[in-house]
Amino acid sequence: MTGKPVRDVGFLAWENERAWMETMRGKRWNNLLRRERTYLHALTRPRQVQSHIRRFQHEFLEDVVPRLEPSGEILLHGVIFVSFHESEDYLWRWRWSTKKRKAVSVETDGTHVWYTKEHPTNSYKYLTVCEDMDGNVCWERDDLGSDIIVTGGNCYYIKIKYPFDTLGAYVCDAHTGHNEEKLLDNKDMKRFMSYITGAEQSVFITSTQWSESRTWRVDGRRITRLYADSQFQYPYDNKHTKCITADNKTIYHGPIFAKWRLPPADHVIDWLNPKTGHVVTHWLGEQTLWLCADNKPPKILLRTSAGEISAYGWAGWYGEIPQAFLVRSPEYAPQIIHVIGDQIMTPLVSPTLRYMPRLTTQRYTTHSVDGTEVSYMIVKSATTPTPRKLLCYVYGAYGSPAVIIWPHMLFGPLFSRGWAVAYSFPRGSGDKDVKWMLNGQARHHNKTIEDFEAVVRDAQRKFHVPPARTVIYGRSAGGMMVGATTARNPDGQLMGATFTEVPFVDGVRSQTNPRIPLVESGFSEYGNPIESVTNFRALFSISPMNALPTDGAPGVFVLCRTGLKDLQVLPYEPVKWVQRLRGNQNPPASKFLAYEKDEAHVYTIPRYYEARGHDLAILDLWAEGRLHQPPPAGTRKNRRIRYTMAQQKRQQKQQKQDGGKRKSRRASRKAHRKTRRQQRK
Asked: Using CA atoms, how far apart are residues 166 and 62, in angstroms rounded to an integer?
């Protein structure tokens, strides 16, 4: 099915002239990528562009990268220290050693340590290792998911069919890896299975789609279904669970909920420890840490205007005190705090950065086309009362909240140059309750796009920023939102530029090809276009590849980045989309594709910040009107640029063959004349 021009779904057949790109093989594909790289190099070739890029990259590497590892460690079972690293991973070390190792998840029982790390040769596989205190490997496997749980002498894990399908929930002997047993089989590849933990070493299995979940409690090697009549289940331990019914009613089960006075109903509970009384909630970007107790009003311990407060689960798991949290927000650089009761034992510190300014946040509201109230968050420098340039962020899918965290991690160099970032909270996102999420799924994704457009217009009006200095940004599933917004505003009447990373933009072709990873699991988010004409029509209307007019988007500058090893959004999608955006114009037509050969859906550190600095510098120069577009392909000037670049490449190759010795100017001229004579012949 992949690469065939004609796609037939029974009730409809159509032809796609760019379907050959889906194979991502052959001379034609390689030549296309080579041309795209040439266009981008021509754009960034001027000296002022190169200087601006280096400056952005330097600021990221100086102010952000050193703070990706927060200070502070947690001692587990008296044998290993654990700390956060980057965005999702951990660093761990033996108590008697200074050597730190990176892990996606880590567990210990005091005599052994179990950890999962990225596979050394495949970024979409994990290596699970059991190691004793002497450093001997007891067992290891590479067919498991990223998360493992160890308790009661058992090791619980999910088996994976490469790259993303979950086959079932399993258990084995923790110390030997033997005596494996299947606890629950996954017969529906539309669902994801995972283990989750609660307080006092409680273990649960969840089987989820984006629109509902099923949960089982694990007792040794037996499982019991929890609250089958509810739509979503959020267990906190073996006695306490929050459930959400099909009609969006929240029901709390467990003895503490009859005594506690919980936070206000409009605050969504992300995490709760029944033993210590600590509760973390979110609402429209705001995160709050509470202390709840019997028959007392909930007490606010910490509130961030935006960002996240993530709990280390080990305190509730092992019953240890104090409770530890990772705080990341515009006010604070990533840091770990320790809490005992209502006392925060670790003082929060605002970072002193060399290049990046202190940030302020403000939440605003506007109204969408149908009158629905939509909120968004403005983040800008405290020394910039009125920003001159605007970047608008959207994700709005899979019930995921906006990723604000520490904004310097994503947009740092922009804030000191007069930019403001608007984080939108549209329908379909997880920034409010479940009803808000469901109102933007499946056939209602057009509501997400309308909400985002309303946010862009309102932010422009408040800060008097014209479309010519407005950029919209989204990555992955958010790429569909910005791609559809670009298709609805192709002449630049809403925004002048679109910036996207690994965007999901060929929705119709991808969602009608079940052989592609993650397609079946995405049916609950986008609807199944194979089974229903209505679903097909709804997806067709928002799919950026299909929604664009014939002449593409002539009034919008587009910068799109991908990784050629991406298996979550296959690279051919952004490549096809960039060609489609140009319409009938000669390339590059202000549409540029950046890619890395050896990177996947998420770039590795520090390559990510090198690429990020490169892209943001280009956008900043564009907004300032100082980015000179390269001439169209086929013109005399463009051919001269390409010839010069090829000549430089030949000289570098010859220099390498000569042992790194640089030729004299006379020898270089002589070689150049010889090459020209050969070309004329």
From this structure: 40
The pLDDT tens digits for 502-524 are 999 999 999 999 889 899 888 98
The 3-state secondary structure of 59-116, one letter per residue:
HHHHHCHHHCCCCCCEEECCCEEEEEECCCEEEEEECCCCCCEEECEEEECCCEEEEE
Give 564's DSSP letter.
Answer: T
Q: What's the rounded Cα separation, in Å, for the pair 96 and 504?
A: 47
Q: Residues 184-199: pLDDT tens digits?
A: 999 888 899 999 999 8
- C-alpha–C-alpha distance, residues 485 and 480, integer Å: 8
| 104-257 CATH fold | Methylamine Dehydrogenase; Chain H (2.130.10)
Instruction: Round to whole Å and give the CA distance between 610 and 553.
Output: 28
State the distance between the two ends of the chain, measured CA to CA, in whole angstroms: 46
Tokens of 330: 């515009």
- Please tell me whether residue 536 adopts helix, strand or coil conformation: helix
Q: How far is CA 179 from the centre of its chain?
A: 37
| Domain boundaries, given as residue ranges, for the chain | 22-64+353-624, 104-257, 637-680
124: left (phi over 0), alpha (psi -120 to 50) or beta: alpha
Q: What pTM was computed for the model?
A: 0.91
- How many angstroms separate the Cα of 580 from the Cα of each of 507, 585, 673? 14, 10, 41
What topology is assigned to 22-64+353-624 in CATH? Rossmann fold (3.40.50)
Q: Which two tokens stand for residue 321?
A: 């005190």
Burial bucket for residue 614 (CB in 10 Å: 0-12, 13-18, 19+):
buried
The beta strand positions in 199-334, using DSSP E, are 202-209, 212-219, 222-226, 232-235, 241-244, 250-253, 268-272, 278-283, 286-293, 296-304, 308-311, 323-328
How long a stretch of residues is the chain? 681
Give yes or no for a contact between 53 and 614, defined as CB atoms under 8 angstroms apart.
yes
Query: Which segments in the chain show pLDDT lower than 50?
Result: none
Q: Give the dihedral sign, CA 226/231/232/236.
A: negative
Between CA 190 and CA 553 the distance in angstroms is 35
